[in-house]
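User: Hi! I have a protein structure encoded as tokens and I'd like to know what sequence might fold into it. I'm fairly new to this, so please keep things simple.
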């Protein structure tokens, strides 16, 4: 029996723990992102009533709502509607960084130990080395890939052991273009023919192209690291 197998009872416990995490997050995603059980408009009205503290209040609320899978574009558009494109973009980025950090923290607490146990010492050490070299840029790159839930990715990154500072900085860097796009569209909701709306659409097109390139390159790097890991595994040396 190899080190990755571990005691059967312990292994089953870790698999069950990760499975429960997946079920919980999937249910939460359905309820919030698809069934829309959260009244985002109501939250926005409450934040607007806080007066001068509204930008900070909205950033904090957006961080919490984002961690529960309220779609980021909706939160960013609300920020633009309340604060305009300039201040709204910074508020959106504050909420985005908060969501990334919170999700990564919870993911680390819930699944990091189990993920390391199931990977085994050799693969876990290899993953740690990859995180030290490319963790920050993995977070940045994920933010450019369309169709991927940022919150779900942050939970996964946390379970894999990405440091919280890498999550926060990576989210700020990688989310800036999209933060501007959706915040600007929210600020232009009354006049989508305004130059600001056209600029937002242009930036969105550039981000989509970069996202496709990032996804392709990320897949190639993953394949290369997997090949290198398999070549360095004990089984490969024994064969």
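Assistant: Happy to help. Inverse folding works backwards from shape to sequence: for each of the 239 positions I chose a residue that suits the local structure. Here it is:
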């Amino acid at each position: 029996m190899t080190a990755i197998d571990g005691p059967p009872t312990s292994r089953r416990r870790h698999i069950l723990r990760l499975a429960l995490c997946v079920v919980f997050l999937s249910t939460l995603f359905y309820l919030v992102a698809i069934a829309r059980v959260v009244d985002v408009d109501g939250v926005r009205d409450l934040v607007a009533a806080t007066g001068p503290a509204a930008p900070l209040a909205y950033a904090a609320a957006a961080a919490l709502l984002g961690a529960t899978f309220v779609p980021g574009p909706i939160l960013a558009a609300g920020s633009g509607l309340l604060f305009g494109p300039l201040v709204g973009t910074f508020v959106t980025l504050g909420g985005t960084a908060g969501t990334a950090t919170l999700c990564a923290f919870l993911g680390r607490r819930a699944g990091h130990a189990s993920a390391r146990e199931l990977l085994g010492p050799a693969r876990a050490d290899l993953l740690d080395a990859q995180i030290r070299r490319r963790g920050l840029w993995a977070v940045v790159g994920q933010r450019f890939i369309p169709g991927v839930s940022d919150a779900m990715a942050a939970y996964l990154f946390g379970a894999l052991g990405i440091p919280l500072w890498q999550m926060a900085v990576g989210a700020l860097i990688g989310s800036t273009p999209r933060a501007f796009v959706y915040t600007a569209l929210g600020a232009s909701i009354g006049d989508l023919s305004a130059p600001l709306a056209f600029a937002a659409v242009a930036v969105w097109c550039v981000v989509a192209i970069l996202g496709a390139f990032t996804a392709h390159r990320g897949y190639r790097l993953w394949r290369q690291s997997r090949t290198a890991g398999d070549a360095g595994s004990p089984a490969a040396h024994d064969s």
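A useful reference point when you look it over: The chain has nine helices and no strands. Feel free to ask if any position seems puzzling.
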